[in-house]
Amino acid sequence: MATIYQVSELAGVSLATVSRVMNNNARVSEKTRSKVLAAMAQLGYRPNTIAQSLASNRSNSVGILVSELHGPFYGDMLAGIENECRAAGKHVIIAAGHSEEASEIDGIEFLISRSCDALILHVEAVSDDYLIKLAAGNIPVVLINRYIPQLAENCICLNNELGGYLATKQLLQQGHRQLAYIAGPMWKSDAKDRYAGHLRAMAEYGVTFNPALFAEGDFQDSSGSACMQQLLDKKLPFTALVCANDEMAAGAMEVAREHGLQVPEQLSIVGFDNLILARYIHPKLTTIDYPVGEMGRMAARWVMKHIYQQQALALKNVFEPVLVCRESACELSSLT
Amino acid sequence: MATIYQVSELAGVSLATVSRVMNNNARVSEKTRSKVLAAMAQLGYRPNTIAQSLASNRSNSVGILVSELHGPFYGDMLAGIENECRAAGKHVIIAAGHSEEASEIDGIEFLISRSCDALILHVEAVSDDYLIKLAAGNIPVVLINRYIPQLAENCICLNNELGGYLATKQLLQQGHRQLAYIAGPMWKSDAKDRYAGHLRAMAEYGVTFNPALFAEGDFQDSSGSACMQQLLDKKLPFTALVCANDEMAAGAMEVAREHGLQVPEQLSIVGFDNLILARYIHPKLTTIDYPVGEMGRMAARWVMKHIYQQQALALKNVFEPVLVCRESACELSSLT
DNA sequence: TAGTATAATGTAAGCGCTTTCATTTATAGC
DNA sequence: GCTATAAATGAAAGCGCTTACATTATACTA
Predict the structure, then answer these.
(1) Is residue A281 within 8 angstroms of chain B, CB to CB?
(2) Could you report the per-residue pLDDT of A207-255, keeping only the tens digit for each?
(3) pTM over cut 0.70
(4) Are residues A281 and B281, on separate chains, in Cβ contact within 8 Å?
(5) How far: A14 CA to C11 C1' (Å)?
(6) Cα dist. B80→B113, B123, B258, B295, B297 in Å?
């Protein structure tokens, strides 16, 4: 592999000049620039990124921590981030945190030890305090799907409350008045916010919320099934169900089917997230779109702007979810 | 951040000694070792991985190229790889190739320019020749889901032929004799192999393959729908359908439903890959399990063994798929 | 045409490690 | 106690770049 030294020799200039044309920052005359470029081409020169990093104290890498690498959700996020980063010549180092505090911290330290220029984190278990301290350190942090007031600038979030509101409103508009709700784990802020949106819509339509028609799941499909079973066991009538995410909706739908309930004819269901699976299950799930890919992309842009000085970029911190109408929710009047 | 120099000062030894205890390779007396360790702890010292890389000419990073970051398939693969690598303190740099030759090559070069110690590739578009040349270079390559005879040692594959065979055999055992087949794009070797397995099973059972009941899709669900439509349009009877992957099976199932066909009562369907979606669609899809996660893990082990000299590891190059029975395929006798 | 500002290029000192080779210290044999 | 050998440590030269500072070439001004 050719080094900068050989390029400089071939081009008949100094190392510094070669370096300058590489980083095309300093002023180099057109003549020497092309000489250098030619020498590079001739040697098939590729800068050694490690040496660049050591000398410039910048690794050109951004560390990403997600809860899981598999699953439909994080993949989209990663895709958005990778796309944006690679276009800028930065690379992406990934780690998984598995929604456990120890593992998340371990992942973050791992990333730090790899001298990333910035961190994009999707963490759930780690405390606000930890993140605030982390952000106060010398490595910039951007948080996806987590809002911490002190770090507002660094948070890229979805307006979950609005999502919960939209999901519920759709059902209310379709004439439903007896709604059940399957929540996510209420210690997670997104679960809480979605629920708050649900309540707001209910209030707006003057429908009183019935605590007996509420169940708390854990965002997994199995808990969706379990919650649905609970709800059904109470023998209370309800014509619609809003689930705090698609996976639970899928689980709930299955239980409904086992009980001979026609969806949506006898029970309308709406989910949240708009995972790919929402298109595959039958009937196709009406849900709230979560633009994870876009948000990942935005997180990457944040980094480009703040760390790699691409001033021009416009940033957006909070995304508005939108309702995706499919087949699992319908007018109450069509109830058999 | 403390440097090795400060550690050496505090411990009262030379840089070289500190370096030695870090890499605990050279012989250092217990006494000085503990002195150094204490100094490190006191300073909260963390080696600068960039400097280590530059000096040792080893980046401790492995580059991964997958077709897509999103989607259910690659996520599992990444999870397997990341897991294994992190346990060994290596980091993972990712890039997406989008199944296009130019993009794949670009991704590979990107990874190389990042001085990865090894590459784990899941590439589809790039030619065998390119890969052979690449592997002949100075950066080791391991291929997932691609078999190139000259690179046999470096390939981690699934026995796709066996999978195709098993899927088909299941249906034949259930008494079906009129089978339709929706293939993947036949220029992809896995699509070809799965199809070959199908033919073998058919031959074994003395069933003649009817070319009219064959359609070629592109592994996407929409093509599954389109192919199913084509098949149905021919008005030829068939009681079972094998699809070269789950997504196409899902698409096909939907079209079947639209045509009023009961699955599995009137049409048995089997897929391939065992994606998460196979559990979510209704009826749950009988399919062939593709152990991507395990294979990713194995690819990482390959790297550990060959590049990072962890001799002890046992390697496995070809994985055997297994049938996962769910609800979408049943005995022919139960046909209404 | 000298005098000055400015642009272009070069020099050399690191960045924080690893590693070779030389030196010192410990261990053993007699 | 003294040499022969092995074990432990140190000195210093890089790894391939960036960058502050010094120097030289060029363009203007008066």
Answers:
(1) yes
(2) 999 999 999 999 999 999 999 999 999 999 999 999 999 999 999 999 9
(3) yes
(4) yes
(5) 9
(6) 24, 17, 38, 7, 4
